[in-house]
Design goal:
- It is built from 15 helices and 16 strands.
- Bound molecules: histidyl-adenosine monophosphate (HAM).
- Histidyl-adenosine monophosphate binds next to strand 6, strand 10, strand 11 and helix 11.
Length: 419
């Protein structure tokens, strides 16, 4: 056992193969779908000046208690990003993207840092795929980001994710609701949990998603009785659009989410295999964020998706080219030929491996069993006749194939495996 102090820090972990290939597959899949929806990749730094995050979540756990905030040797107050939305908003303002053709569609895939209590599905470093859509107030924009997220989840193999959605109103209707909610909970303050007694003044909406005071919230005032006409119309159209696109969605009157910047639409998607306290992805509308970071006011909506959580919920691993590896084994004396054949296969776009440890054919075949699905055997009369034996390790069948058509043959077979 390695020395404790040289092991990964609590709540973090190494990702080794084959799981690491699953991460790569998710990176490809998310970029492909984001591209189809017209989103451009954006990379922001992993740390920002602390005010970028403080501004968006002064009263949230994520920013107040869970951020990795530090002063560096030069005295700068910095924070490892706990989420991507504030960082992208900072970039949107800093680069004057409000003057670019609208809407501006951006996506990212990368690590986020939160000093949470580690438990199943909760890490101190996790990976998010996120998308942010700027410049449109339309309900079509809210629906679009939800549909992008659900298409990705569906393409990864989790069928029919169920979106829960709510509207937390706008500056017109939320203050009235807030007042009613505070009055309701103040009248019952003795029955509230410790956290909620603090939240009641700071962030009363969060009382609705308290996991302790579940009974009280059932009879709490309902947001929908306070929505202004615009907010009511907006969420109605968001839901109708998502449904028309074939995606199930339902309203959850208790959904409010843990970040300060949301206006109107908030949404989350869970999965039975994850338990009911963790979400696969979540997001919402945040029309006031760019102005609070010193930019012009710009409507915006987006989501963040937990890649570790999505991967852990998949019924089966994603297919990856690397899992369809071809192993080029050889009889004694033909190691160079096998090596060069592997090079040819790689050049043709296949994943190929050849022995570089001088192993016997028997040992090569054993090794192939661990890392490949197909084995080519270079040697014998087959090789002298410009053919090669091709063994399918999944069903044990073997064929002799002319070297001339070998590439074509393998490509077809690998495609067949994938179908
Ligand atoms: P969030 O709900 O805090 O939202 O995080 C988004 C997703 O990241 C969660 O649904 C979950 O899948 C994953 N996640 C969060 N914390 C952890 C953790 N400790 N371990 C594993 N996975 C985690 C946001 O971060 C917003 N920026 C989303 C957004 C984008 N809103 C608008 N645009």
């Amino acid at each position: 056992m390695a020395n404790e102090q040289f092991q990964t820090a609590r709540g973090t972990r190494d990702v080794l193969a084959p799981e690491s290939w699953q991460f790569e597959a998710m990176r490809r899949l998310t970029a492909e779908w984001a591209g189809r929806f017209g989103y451009d990749p954006i990379e922001t730094p992993i740390f920002e000046k602390s005010p970028v995050f403080l501004r968006v979540g002064e009263s949230t756990d994520i920013v107040q208690h869970e951020s990795y905030r530090f002063v560096d040797a030069g005295g700068d107050d910095l924070t490892l990003r706990p989420e991507g939305t504030a960082a992208v908003a900072r970039a949107y303002v800093q680069h004057g993207l409000a003057n670019a053709p609208q809407p501006v569609r951006l996506f990212y895939f990368g690590p986020m840092f939160r000093r949470e209590r580690p438990q199943a599905g909760r890490y101190r470093q996790h990976t998010q795929f996120g998308a942010e859509l700027y410049g449109s107030e339309s309900p079509l924009a809210d629906a679009e980001v939800m549909l992008l997220a659900t298409r990705v989840v569906d393409a990864a193999g989790l069928k029919n994710p169920n979106i829960r959605v709510n509207s937390i109103g706008c500056e017109v209707c939320r203050p009235r609701y807030r007042e009613a909610l505070v009055a309701y909970f103040k009248a019952r303050e003795e029955s509230l949990c410790k956290d909620c007694r603090v939240r009641i003044d700071q962030n009363p909406l969060r009382l609705l998603d308290c996991k302790v005071d579940v009974e009280l919230r059932e009879t709490a005032p309902d947001l929908q009785d306070f929505w202004c006409d615009d907010c009511r119309g907006h969420i109605g159209q968001v839901m109708a659009t998502v449904e028309r696109a074939g995606q199930t969605i339902r309203r959850d009157r208790h959904l409010v989410r843990g970040l300060d910047y949301y206006t109107r639409t908030v949404f989350e998607v869970g999965h039975p295999s994850l338990g009911d306290q963790v979400a696969l992805f979540g997001g919402g509308r945040y029309d006031g964020l760019s102005a609070s970071l010193g930019g012009v006011s710009a409507p915006a909506v987006g989501f963040g998706m937990g890649i570790e959580r999505l991967l852990s919920a998949l019924p089966q691993p994603l297919p990856t080219p690397e899992s369809e590896r071809v192993y080029v084994a050889h009889l004694p004396g033909l190691d160079q030929e096998a090596y060069l054949l592997a090079m040819t296969l790689r050049g043709a776009g296949l994943a190929a491996d050849a022995d570089i440890l001088g192993r016997s054919l028997k040992a090569q075949l054993k090794d192939a069993g661990r890392r490949a699905k197909w084995v080519l055997i270079v040697g014998g009369t087959e090789w002298e006749n410009d053919t090669v034996s091709v063994r399918n390790l999944m069903d044990g069948t073997q064929e002799v194939i002319s070297q001339e058509i070998l590439l074509e043959y393998l490509r077809e077979r690998l495609q067949g495996d994938r179908a």
